[in-house]
Records
---
Amino acid sequence: MIDEFCGQRGDRVLFVGEGNFSFSLALAKLALDKDRLNQWTSTCYESKPVSEKASENAAALKGLGVSVAFGVDATKIDGNYDRVVFMFPHVGGKMKIQKNRRLLRHFSASAATAIADSDGGRVVVTLCAGQGGTDRELAPRSSEADTWQIVKMMADSGLQLVDAKPLASTVAEMLPDYASFGYRSLDKGFHTENAVVHVFALNSFDGGLDFVQKRLKLLSRERRTCEVAVRLATLLGPDFEVDADHDEGHGAPDLKRYKGTTIPRVLLSFDFSLELGSNPVKVFVLTRKVLGSLKKACAEGDVTAYNATEHCFDSFDESWQEMWTELPSVSPASYSHDLSFWSREDLAIADLRKLVWLRCGDFVSSFEVIDDTFVGADSRRSYTVRIVYKTHAFALGPETAYDLHRKHLGAALVDKFGVELR
């Protein structure tokens, strides 16, 4: 847990919103390597120490080699860091959910810029019980509307939630010298039981590839860091080739097509007739070795095709999205949007579904045609589709989701079918 806040040796660590400086001081006292502390900076928003204890703690940090600064706004971070830590952010006062969401959103933009040049940079935010609104809460609130929606607030800056865990049953168990500060803007502590530590990495939408090409790239020799690639490399060794076998029915591959090609070889079979959100990929392995643990699909000469999907990948259907992701999201948010358009041709639902799979399969969890009955005076038919956006592959915030909805999927519909968006 300590490493979530401190990072690795040599990491430039910035603490913002420290108040009385007791948290960063408690961590500094635990550091086994005191030389790393000269890469730490501890700051507070106030222009001067908030209490005598805060002044003492700031002096103690300086004595350990930590830089200390006052009057630092967490939404306007200056400098480059490997880790930015914000413990229990709050605008002050009571019942100000919207203002606290805004604080997170503005902080995320600043923090994302601060770690932009870091290899493996992280932003760490700890919130009180129930505030974050993720499925990692030990004491969840009854409705997402009653939370700060931390995943959504951080995501439009490209910050993806990659871990979330309890701070401790009480903070005192981990950091006995830490004393929370700022209850109702006073020099008083607050309850930290069941607090959750949220860890974010910078991972925004990169413009994307279609669904098939993305998987081929993930299995290419230059990548192979997602779980599917790791397991295949364990089974076959590093020297395997990859092909997309476009079999819409998930049947056994036609080995004659691969006669004379490099073996071992991985074939990916896709079934885009399935509902969005379900697993459309089957993985076949072509090898000359006998793989007794796998189910044979077919054989041709000395080459056997094995269906590796069920046997190599436990719970593949349930967790397939995470297994195809290099840095899986934790508790990803979802967004529902409707899209209406006119078409001069009657469109088959299967064709619409396949397009959504190919262009948006990595970030759409549900697709439904909710209206296709109205025909206008010019004989054009009106369609309305409802799409739920959700992904484990990158940071998906409200603005990003809407841009993908209109500019990515909407543009694909226009390009493929010649429709007119309404």
Note: The chain has three domains: 2-202, 211-323, 335-421.
---
Amino acid sequence: MADKTLVTPGQSTATTMVNEASSRLRQNGVTRPRAGTITGRVWEIADEVSKAFGNHDVRKEVIAKGLAAGINAATLQTQISEWRRFQGLGRNPIATGAPGQTDAAAEDEVVERRILKKLSNQIVGNAGLYYVCFKLSLDGWNVMPTSRNARGIDILAYSQTGKRFLTVQVKALSKSAPVPLGKTLPTFIAEHIVICQRVLTQTPRCFVLSGEEVRRRAHRGVKNGQESFWLQPKAYEEFLDRWDRIGSGLDE
């Protein structure tokens, strides 16, 4: 289910509509998340901190405020990076990138093109797997990648006290692209499906879904009489950084 925009007491519908319109601005290849959502709140905190301190190095303050507001660390770190890209905060634009592109974004593209020519799908898959393990570890989970022949589950994780367990399947992609699901629509064993895009860059993007959500949104295609299923990027974009759906491994 997509995040809903919340109307606070005393806030008019017109004001909400204006906020919603402004929250979907897109620049530097990044779309601002909707107001009233968890990711949108991180951006609002970053805006507030940047305005208050008059500088753009807002990570420490934003993380502190975000944790105090109950937002998990993985979401905070990823969204701060996205906010900086949206603001165009790099050192200087460089000639190898697109007009107005920061050096950080351009370097990511150059590195991706260079490495993609050399890396196999297995290496891309491993990069995505261990990045997701890293993100879960930041949220307090003890994570264990499974052996490569474990069907349908890539990660087993348990909470700090061992009272809670979760299973994760990772779909790793080198860029923003459809997720191949195979010739038949799969039934997923893992509780959570994490799609990890741009695993060859410094800022991978993760999307957290359930198996049933993947099945409902899958696209069926037929080519040369062969049926196949895919998950298009627009079908899972709303689940960006929804680590809150997994929750924290720190037992209360």
Note: Residues 120-245 form a domain with the Trna Endonuclease; Chain: A, domain 1 fold (CATH 3.40.1350.10).
---
Amino acid sequence: MNDFKLQNDVRDLSVTENGDLEVIDSEIGNNLQRLNIRLRTYRGEWFLDTNEGIPWVQELLNTRNNKSSVDTAIRQAIINTQGIVGILSYESEQDTGSNLYKIRVVVSSSDGNQGTIEIEV
């Protein structure tokens, strides 16, 4: 199944130099984009379902949680993403000064391929 490609940094449609919309034509590409959207969606952000998304602000990135509990929640969100069948490698870094959380994960996809995603939230 093909999907429109989104720019990772601004979550807007990606276009070629000619102005054509870019399309993802691989299952691993679709699965990685789906995972990227899941991890970058804050709970309460989507007006049609305010329970959708990761509770970054509400629960995870506050002073009460340690890094281990945040990583457990993120890993659970990754494994529950459609098309992702396993986590092959997971690294995270918490910068408490800037309140940024950096994640680098290598996943296996339902089509047998592997892919890497890196995000900051």
Note: The two ends are 28 Å apart (CA to CA).
